[in-house]
Write a structure and sequence with these properties.
The protein contains 27 helices and 23 strands. With about 700 residues, it is of the alpha/beta class. Helices cover about 35% and strands about 20% of the residues. The protein starts with about 30 loop residues before the first strand and ends with a helix. The longest helix has 18 residues, at about 215-230.
Length: about 700
C-alpha cells in the first residue's frame, strides 16, 4: 500500500519510519466505534451510573463534539476509551473498538501500549497534568522512549519537531524550559505536542480551552483543526460551550445525566435542535449585540443524582415542556441522521413555549457622580536575582492608566491574561499599592493611605475572586466565612449580622442551611454565589468582579450574570468587571476598557466597542469570541485571528506595544508611543491608525447581521 505523500510537516514520510505512516484511502474510514457503553463508579454505599448506553463513532479526519454541563458524563466517556477512570470506576458493559480492536477487556499491558501511541489525550488543566520537576523536552521525549523505543537523541529530535508542529516560537529554546516558565496557551500547546508525539490515530481533547483567553483559545482550536487535517486523525472535542463546537465539529453529541440526548451533524443541530436540553443550553449563551436589558434564559435546578436516577426522562424536572409521560417513561434515542431522546421534541412553532417568555431587568439609575477615579496609575514589580538579590529588571504590570467609574454603572475591563487587568482591580480595592499615580474615592486620594486606614475604607469596595474555592477557607463553615467581614469591621450586633447574612443568602438563591456546610460541599456556581454574598456583607459601593464566570457551565454562567444584574439594580452597586470574554462583558457593561500589556488602549460605550472598534487589538478580541453559529464561525476562520503571544512585560516593545502583532503597523508604530485620544463622542483610543481602522469594513458585525437576515 503506498505511503501518503504529505507527512507531518508537509514532507514525505518514509515507509517503515519509527513514527508510522498514513495510507491512501484511510480518510473518513471508521476509526472508533462505541456501542452501549456503561461506566460505573462503585463506592462503598452506592453506585454512580456515570455513563449509560452511549453509542458513538468517529471517522478518520472527523471531529466529534461532545457537549453538556459538568457531571453529564462527557469526560467520563472520554476516560472510558483510554481506561483512565477514577477510583472505583469500571466499564460495566458495552463495546469500545479502535480500528476494529476491542478495548473492553483488554489487558492493562495492552492499554498502556495504546495510550499515547494510538490514542492521545489533551487534558483540561495542563499545569496539573505536566510534571513541574521535568523539562518540556524530557516530558515529550519520555513517551517516545516508552512507546517507540527511541534513544535519547532521536526522542529529543522528535520532541523538537512536534514543538514546531504546534507552533511554539523558539522551540529549540523551549525544550529546556519547565512548565511554570510558559504561559497558559504555551502549556496547552505542550500538552498537544505530548499527545501527538507518537502520531496517534485518535486525539481526545477534554475542555482544551476552558481557562484560556479568547485569542489563545482561537489559536488552539485552529491548531487542532490543522493537525487533524494534516495527520488524518479522528478528534473528540469535549466542551460545555456550543460556541466552541459550532465552527470546529463535523458532528455534535449532546449528553445529559450520563446519556446521549441528541446527536447529528453540526449544521443540522444548529438549524433544527430537537431536544429541550439542547435548546436550553443554546439559549443561555450571552452573545455580543444581544439586548442587555433582557434576562438571560437559564436552566432551573441541577442534573439528577446518578446514584439514584429518576424513573422517566432524566431532564423532566428541569424541562419547561414536561408532561406526565416524561416522568413515567424513559424515552429512547431514536432517529437516523438526527437522533434525539424526547417524547415531545421541539420544533420552530413551539420554540417560544419551550424557552419561555423572556423577562427584562429592572431599570438602573443613570450614572452621574464619579465614584472612583484612577489617574496615571502605575504598578511595577521589581525582579531580583543572584545571591546578593540585586535588581535585574521590573515587570510593567500597569502603565499610566486613567479611568473613571461612575456610581451605579458597570465598566468592563478586557484583555488577554498578563495585560494587567487583575492588578488594576487589586489596586482599586486596596490590595495592591500603586508605584505611582492617584486613586480617588469620592474625590479623596486613597493611594497613599496607611494600612490601618485602608482596612477601614475597604468596606466600601470588595473583590469577587475568580476562583471562589481558593478564596474560601476550607476549614470554615460558610456561615463563619460570611460573618467574618462584619465581625472584623465591628458592624452591628450578632443578631443584625446574622439577619444580614440570611437576607443575602436569599438574594443569591441559596438555602439557609448552607451556613452549616463547608466550601467543598458546593458546586462551582454555588461557590460563586457565596463569594458574591460575602462581598456584599459590608454593603460596598464598588464590587470588582475578577473573571466571575470564566470556569462555569454556560447555564450556570447565565444564572450568575442575571443575579449580578438584579442585585446591582437593588443595591445601586458599581461594578468593575474583569474578563477576557467580551460576550460576557458586553451583556453586563455600560462601558468597556480594553487593556493591552498594562495600558488602556481603548475606552467606549459597550455598543460602540462592538459596532465600531477603533483599535486593531479590540477587533482581534471580538473576532476570537466563539459564536454559536456554524456559518459565522466558518467565516470568522477565514477572516483570521490575532497571531502570536503577548510580549513579556519585563521588556515591552518600543512604540506601540501592540505593533509586533498588528496588521496595521507601520514604521511610526515601532517608534512613537500612541496616547489615548478622542475619535468620537465618549470613544477614546491609543492608535496611530484609528481613523483607518474605523474606515475599514467591520466584517464581524456585517457577518452577524447578514446571517440573522
Amino acid at each position: 500500500m503506498p505511503v501518503r505523500g504529505i507527512g507531518i510537516f508537509g514532507c514525505a514520510r518514509l515507509t517503515g519510519s519509527v513514527w508510522g505512516s498514513i495510507h491512501e484511502g484511510e480518510i473518513m474510514a471508521e476509526l472508533l466505534e462505541i456501542k452501549e457503553l456503561a461506566t460505573e463508579i462503585r463506592q462503598r454505599r452506592n453506585t454512580i451510573r456515570a455513563v449509560e448506553g452511549v453509542t458513538l463513532s468517529v471517522k478518520r479526519g472527523e471531529t466529534l463534539g461532545v457537549v453538556g454541563e459538568s457531571g453529564c458524563g462527557k469526560t467520563m466517556t472520554a476516560l472510558s476509551i483510554v481506561r483512565l477512570l477514577p477510583a472505583g470506576g469500571v466499564i460495566a458493559g458495552g463495546s469500545i473498538k479502535l480500528d476494529g480492536e476491542e478495548l473492553v477487556g483488554a489487558s492493562e499491558t495492552r492499554m498502556r501500549a495504546i495510550r499515547g501511541s494510538k490514542i492521545g489525550v489533551v487534558f483540561q488543566d495542563p499545569m496539573t497534568s505536566l510534571n513541574p520537576s521535568k523539562t518540556i523536552g524530557w516530558q515529550i521525549a519520555e513517551s517516545l522512549m516508552i512507546h517507540k523505543a527511541a534513544n535519547k537523541a532521536a526522542a529529543r529530535k522528535r520532541a523538537l519537531e512536534v514543538l514546531d508542529l504546534v507552533k511554539i516560537p523558539a522551540a529549540a529554546e523551549r525544550l529546556n524550559d519547565f512548565p511554570h516558565q510558559l504561559s497558559g496557551g504555551m502549556r496547552q500547546r505542550v500538552m498537544i505536542a505530548i499527545a501527538l508525539a507518537n502520531s496517534p490515530e485518535l486525539l481526545i481533547a477534554d475542555e482544551p480551552t476552558t481557562a484560556l483567553d479568547v485569542t489563545i483559545q482561537a489559536q488552539i482550536l485552529g491548531l487542532l483543526d490543522e493537525l487533524k487535517a494534516t495527520l488524518n486523525m479522528g478528534l473528540i472535542l469535549v466542551t460545555h460551550d456550543l460556541g466552541v463546537v459550532a465552527g470546529r465539529a463535523d458532528r455534535v453529541m449532546v449528553m445529559y445525566a450520563g446519556r446521549v440526548v441528541e446527536s447529528t451533524t453540526t449544521t443540522e443541530l444548529f438549524q433544527q435542535m430537537r431536544h429541550p436540553y439542547t435548546y436550553s443550553l443554546f439559549s443561555s449563551i450571552p452573545r455580543i449585540g444581544d439586548d442587555r436589558e433582557q434576562v438571560l434564559a437559564t436552566i432551573p435546578g441541577l442534573p439528577p443524582d446518578l446514584a439514584h436516577p429518576p424513573k422517566g426522562c432524566r431532564f423532566a424536572e428541569r424541562c419547561q415542556f414536561t408532561q406526565d409521560r416524561c416522568r413515567e417513561e424513559d424515552p429512547a434515542l431514536e432517529g437516523d441522521q438526527h437522533q434525539f431522546a424526547c417524547w415531545f421534541p421541539v420544533d420552530h412553532e413551539i420554540r417560544s413555549t419551550v424557552l419561555g417568555v423572556q423577562e427584562r431587568h429592572a431599570p438602573r439609575s443613570v450614572p452621574h457622580e464619579p465614584l472612583l477615579e484612577l489617574r496615571g496609575l502605575v504598578k511595577e514589580y521589581d525582579i531580583f536575582a543572584g545571591a546578593l538579590r540585586r535588581k535585574v529588571g521590573s515587570v510593567h504590570a500597569v502603565s499610566g492608566v486613567d479611568l473613571t467609574l461612575y456610581e451605579g454603572e458597570t465598566v468592563g475591563i478586557v484583555g488577554e491574561s498578563g495585560c494587567g487587568k487583575s492588578t488594576l482591580g487589586r489596586m482599586m480595592v486596596g490590595l495592591e499599592r500603586p508605584t505611582s499615580g492617584q486613586i480617588l474615592y469620592r474625590g479623596d486620594d486613597i493611594a497613599t493611605r496607611s494600612l490601618s486606614e485602608m482596612r477601614k475604607l475597604r468596606r466600601n469596595f470588595q473583590l469577587m475572586f475568580q476562583d471562589p474555592y481558593a478564596s474560601l477557607d476550607p476549614r470554615m463553615r460558610i456561615g463563619a466565612a460570611l460573618l467574618e467581614p462584619v465581625k472584623v469591621q465591628h458592624i452591628g450586633d450578632s443578631s443584625a449580622q446574622e439577619a444580614r447574612m440570611f437576607t443575602l443568602l436569599d438574594e443569591v438563591g441559596l438555602r439557609h442551611n448552607a451556613v452549616e456546610r463547608y466550601p467543598h460541599e458546593f458546586s462551582g456556581g454555588q461557590r460563586q454565589r457565596i463569594g458574591f454574598a460575602r462581598a456584599l456583607m459590608l454593603e460596598p459601593g464598588l464590587v470588582v468582579a475578577d473573571e466571575p464566570v470564566s470556569a462555569l457551565d454556560v447555564s450556570i454562567r447565565s444564572q450568575v450574570l442575571n443575579m449580578m444584574r438584579r442585585l446591582q439594580a437593588r443595591y445601586g452597586l458599581t461594578y468593575a468587571l474583569i474578563s477576557h470574554d467580551l460576550s460576557v462583558v458586553s451583556y453586563l457593561a455600560d462601558r468597556i476598557g480594553v487593556m493591552y500589556l498594562g495600558e488602556l488602549v481603548e475606552l467606549a460605550a459597550a455598543s460602540d466597542i462592538f459596532s465600531s472598534p477603533a483599535h486593531p487589538y479590540t477587533r482581534g478580541l471580538l473576532r476570537s469570541v466563539p459564536i454559536p453559529d456554524p456559518q459565522i464561525e466558518r467565516e470568522k476562520a477565514r477572516v483570521g485571528q490575532i497571531v502570536g503571544e503577548l510580549p513579556s512585560p519585563l521588556s515591552p516593545p518600543d512604540g506601540c506595544r501592540f505593533h509586533p502583532r498588528c496588521p496595521y503597523a507601520t514604521q511610526e508604530c515601532s517608534i512613537d508611543h500612541p496616547k489615548l485620544r478622542v475619535v468620537a463622542t465618549g470613544h477614546t483610543v491609543a492608535c496611530h491608525h484609528a481613523e483607518r481602522v474605523l474606515e475599514d469594513a467591520w466584517e464581524l458585525e456585517e457577518l452577524v447581521n447578514s446571517v440573522e437576515r
